[in-house]
Amino acid sequence: MPQAAQWIPSGDYQLSFGDDGKIIARNKAGKPLKSVPPKAKKTEAFLELDQLRDCLARHDAEAGAQVQRWLLDGLPVPTKLIAELWADTSWQSWLTDLVIATANDDAVELRGFLREATKNGGGISLGVVDLDGESDTIDADHIRIPHPVLFGDDLDELREFAVDLGLTQRFDQLQRQVFAAPDSPSGKGVNEFSDAEYDEIRFVAGRARANGFAVQGGYAVCRIIENGYRYQARIWIGEGSPEEPTTLGELIWVRDDATLPLAEVPPVAYSEGMRMATILYAGRKIAKGSDQ
Amino acid sequence: MNSLEDAGAVLPEPGEHTTPLVARGYTHQVLGDRTIVRLVGEAIVPAEDAMLDVLGLEPTSAVPVGHLRRRTIGFPAWPIIVDPANARHAIAAAADLQRARKLVAGSANSAKAAIVAAASTLGGSAPHFVPTFLEEAGRIFIDADAPTYAAQMFGLARDAEAAHALPVDEDRHREAFLEFAFAGAVSVKALTAEARRLMAAHEPATAHELLTTLVVRRIKGGLPPYSAMRQDLRRSAKAAGLSDDEQALQLISQIIDIPALANANAGFWREYQTALVAAAVGNGEFADKLLTMAPDSIEVDEWLELLERAGCLDRLREPGYPAAQWAQVICRRAGAYVWNRRSEGSSQTRLRALLDDPQIRNNLTADTGPVTLPLVVGAGQLHPALIDTLIEIFGDRIVEAPCRYQSTVNFATWWADRDTSGELRHLAGYEPLASAVRAGIRRFLSEHEQRVTGADYTVVSAEAAAALLGCPGTAQALKAYVAHNLSGFKLGEGLTPPEITRVAEWLHYLARPNLAAFLSEELAVLTQAVDPTTLVEHNLRLGSVAELHWPNVSERLAESRANRDALTGLDPGSWTRGCDYAARPTVVAPWAFS
Question: What is the pTM of this model?
Answer without folding.
Answer: 0.73
